[in-house]
What does this fold into?
Amino acid sequence: MFICCYICVNMKKLLTSLMLSFLFCAGWAQVPLDREEIRPTKIAPKYFGPYAYPVPDLDEARTCGKLSVYLSGDFNVGNIGGKGNEDYTWAPSYRISIPLWTDRVNFVSWGNFHEWWTNSEQSAAARRINPKYPLKGEANAQVWLGLDMLVLREQEKRPSVVLSANMLTAMGEYYERARYYDAAGYHFTASVGKDFTFKDESRLRASATLGFVCWQTKIASQNDAFLCGVKLSYTRPFLAAAVEYGTYTGWEGDGDQLRVLKVRADIPVGRFSPFVAYAHGFHDWPFDQFRIGLKVDFDILKNSKEK
It folds into this structure.
């Protein structure tokens, strides 16, 4: 209900962002981003907020075939200003996955409803933010839209293969304060995964992801990046844990070569699964992210036949 109200309130901006995003993906966008005279910082993840264009979560090469809703509260500590000069970002975030009449295709959307941040003078200077702007603020965040498609179903001796296409809308505010790019972007990935089941009903899953990331940096210019990652997850009754390492590398070489480690633990009880997660950026994503949330599943395909 909250997600629906949020989207309705911002419908005009959402529709405008979607139009710009599709034009950009087709190579026709002319979003006015050449603001070197206002802010000379490169349009790269290192110099912006934690949600501008992070390494996406890996999908484990599976589509669950259920309506899944994730809600969480995030706390991000930025270290671009150096130890003792950190900046902070708070944000409620969401992710929703909806099966499209089959367990083979999911529509997905994720993002942040709103964010509040506090910069230090050192972190603001490192991001080259104009000193006239206050060190504290808040902003509307941005929304991702995508599709996960199960191309090859997993069998006893065969891994599953999932293709994903994802688009970033240009809803994020405050480009000039280094929060969001104010531009569209997209990434495509292919994932391969396999389960290994043990006698005690526990399961280990290994998956690998390759992909392509692209975002607009100014008029008629874009940054292209190669994305890859690996993930291990362990599941047993009432406990699930996962660790993943993801990276993408842009061609400009200035703040666009991310390396991030993420860990997560869930306690599934029926359709509910509270979780905690932590992410650490080793390079060009200068943040530590702490997340606590709840996942809820609804089996809306229970009367459908698997194909």
Observations:
- The radius of gyration is 19 Å.
